[in-house]
Structures are given as structure tokens and as C-alpha cells.
Amino acid sequence: MKVSIDMGLTRDSKPATLDLEELLATRLLVQGNSGSGKSHLLRRLVEQSAQWVQQCLVDPEGDYVTLAEEFGHVVVDAAEHNDVQIAQIAARVRKHRVSVVLNLENLEAEFQLRRAAAFLNGMFEADRDHWYPCLVVVDEAQLFAPVAGGEVTDEARKQSLGAMTNLMCRGRKRGLAGVIATQRLAKLAKNVAAEASNFLMGRTFLDIDMTRAADLLGMDRRQAEMFRDLERGNFIALGPAMARRPLPVRIGDVKTGGRGGSPKLMPLPETPPEDALDLIMTPGENEPPPQPARKIRPLPPQTATNDVLTQLAAARPPEPEPEEEDGAPVDPAVTIERIMREVIADPDAAFRSTAVLYQDFLVRCRMKRINGRQLDLAAFKRKLATARAGVSIEAEHSEDWDKAQSVADRLPEDLQPLFLLLARAAMDQTPCPSDTEIARARNSRSPRRARGLLEYLESRGVITQREDAGGLRVIALPDLAWETAPGDPRAGEEAPGGGQSDLFGT
């Protein structure tokens, strides 16, 4: 059955009708600033469709309770019931097909969201046998489906947003047709607004709201300025239930009115000044007795900031200098060197990132009451590479090591630790590092990768490799004229099987 609802007149003074059956299948979004006639539009829609379809209104301001006398809506005061009771009432509302107004005006914002969520969820979760067509009108929808959290808790916001999303996204199959009204599209969650196929856009002034309204109506953004010029009660309609192209509509009159309404100018009472003073200073008959005035203690004189800082500095005990076990003072530079060695002494340090090791270094410095920030991250990387190479504190400041460091600086940063490891072995004439040690210098456990790195360095002319008569590896550094002692490249590697069962072994 097709039912056409008279919403008012078009620009050509023709009736502006709304297909109620199509509205139940496609939902409606109303947008307009305060004073644009948004609540008047919702009241017109409710009054014209009251005899054809069940209606449930979520009313945060108590404006629609006047529908009860004229159209028989049952007013449910949410302040008198808890969440469980509200959900049960919503289920009975669907079962008995009673039109109701959920009045939330006596609740704070937190409980308004909780009660609205309980009511909408109760209707949504009703038994399949009770999925009758129902028009669900939510005024000030940006309160119940906000883009971001406000003064309410995240739990209440998520409950309300989830209920509104269910209403607009999944409510159609359950017979629930959402009609939501908002002052600002920018404050309304997009996943809720996007599910509406019918739109009635009223007066708005902010650029972001005008742009979104124009986008929803498929209008050129240059035409968005027209929303500023709309008069009260005038809207632009679009959608399968009203018009296939943007259609200006002027909303018709209503039978009922809100309890608030728009403020009207009226003359002030002619009260002489002396009588007006008595009126505001004399308590009325039903007013509680005034509370005794609380004495306010004078604030102590304020102290200058510089004086406070001076007092704090004088009261702070001097930081003791780091000492050796025998009580002799220690050079902070030497302490930093030792802390660096402590950091890399951790067996897992070779496989941690430089940033993590730097934070570990700073914590250890604070424990020793040393300013670790005198080494920035770049200087820390340089010292870390030197320490990982096994260079002693004394050798680090020698001329030979400065030469090795200058050669390393010409390499990419990730290859410098590897080159310094080879340079330290060549400088000390110790055996050539094994593949396992070379891989560890690059935060790896793969000997194959170590051999690939050596081949890369050799291709750049930084090192040369050869084998002695015993099959041991010798690496020479041409730029420094240094050469390592022969070393076993497979030293430290596990034997085949590695203590583990080999499924394919013989």
C-alpha cells in the first residue's frame, strides 16, 4: 500500500509529498542549524504519519511529549527506569506496536546516551515475530552518534554509537526505519549518516557543513552557498522517497507545539528599583534558609619565582661525585666507557636495535649519576661500533685506531661495525674473525650473510681475502696496510645436526 505524506509546498506551490513506504526502506537524514525549523519538520512528519505507522521518538529535550494528548503517544520517562528496564520496555513496545516518546530531558548526558542505547538495542533485538514496521526518530543525533568523545565516558559513547549504527545499517530488515536529525553533519559519525538515502538539508553557515550537505545532495560545491540563504522552515529535499533531483520544500503547519519554542520579545515588568531590590534580596516562602557565608582566608603573600628557585637550589644536596671502591674520584669519561662495555656485554645486545641500546645506556648513566646525554645518538653509534669491535679503551684513542675510524667513515653506516671488527683484528694481529662473529656485528645469526658481506667489501676494494696453506682465512686491509692472523671461518658454528634430530639425516 502506497501512502503519501504531505510535508508542505514546493517552490511552485505544489504539494511536497513523501512516500512513506519508500521512507521505511531507505531512511532519512535531516540537517539544519538551531532555529532552522528542524524540529518543526520532524513534528510535521510524525503528525502526518501517526495513523499509518508505529512511531518511537528519542527525545533528549522533552519537546515531543505534547504528541501524547493529540495522537496517543505513550511518554516513557527514562529517568524513572534503569537500562535493563528500558530494554524490556522497548521489547514490549515492538510486541504491542505502541507509539512512544522516550523522554531523556531529566538525565545528564552520560545517562542519556546509556538509556538511548538500551532502548534502541531493545527494539533491535526484539523477537523476529515482532519485526513490524516502525519509524524511529532520533532528534539531536550528533549527541548519540558523535564523531569524537566529549564529556561522556568512552563506554557510554561506544554503546550509543553502536546502537545508532545498528539502527541505520541493519535496522531495515527488522522493520526499523531510522529518521535522524542533527545540527551539524561534521559532528555526526559518518558511518551513521552514510546509510541514509533521503535528505532534507536546512539552513547552515559553516563551510564544512555546507560542503558535506552539497556532496550528499550531488550539488556543485559552488552551489553550497545557498544553504546560508534558506529561511526558517525551508529545506532542500533529495531521495527516492521525495525527489530524484534537489527540490526546495517549505514545511507545512503542525497541530502540536513544543514546550520550549522560539523566544519571543515581551515588555519588561514595570517594577520600581526599590521594589526590585526587595524582590531579589528577600527569600520566598518555599526557599530553604540561606547558608552562612564561609569565611575566606586571605592568601599568603606570593613569593617571586626567582626567590623560590634560589631556595630550592640551596636546599638541594650536592650530587656526590662517582667514586671507585677505594673512594678515589673517577673521570666521568672513563665511567661512560665502562657503561658502554656493560651494555654490549649482554648476550642479546648484538641482536637489539641501536635505539634500544641507547635507552639502556642512558638508564645506566642515570643510575651512576652521569649525564649520558653528552653522547648523542650519532656519537653513541660510533662508540658502539668501536666497543663491539673489541677495541680497548686505551687503543681507542691511539693514532692507529683514528686511521681505521677514518676509513670506516667512508663506508655506509651499517657496514662500519663490520669493518672496525676486521680492523681491530688486523691491528692486534689476532686471528681473522669467524663468519659467526662477522654476522653478529650486523645483528644477524646467519654465517651465509657474513660471507656475502665480506664479498661486498672486497668488491669495493676495502678488504682482500685469501687462504693459507692450512685452509684458514686471512683478511688484509689495503688502506691501512694491515693484515689479520689466519683464522677459522667456521669457528663457533654448530656441527651438522647441532644436537638436534635431522629428519633427512642418515
From TrEMBL:
Q: Outline the extent of the AAA+ ATPase domain.
A: 24-349
Kindly give the InterPro entries that the UniProt entry links to this protein.
AAA+_ATPase, ATPase_Atu1862_pred, HerA-like, HerA_central, P-loop_NTPase
Gene3D superfamilies, per the entry: P-loop containing nucleotide triphosphate hydrolases (3.40.50.300)
* Transmembrane spans: none
Q: Where is this region: Disordered?
A: 483-506
Q: Which domain of life is it from?
A: Bacteria
Q: What is this protein called?
A: AAA+ ATPase domain-containing protein
Q: What is the lineage of its organism?
A: Bacteria, Pseudomonadati, Pseudomonadota, Alphaproteobacteria, Rhodospirillales
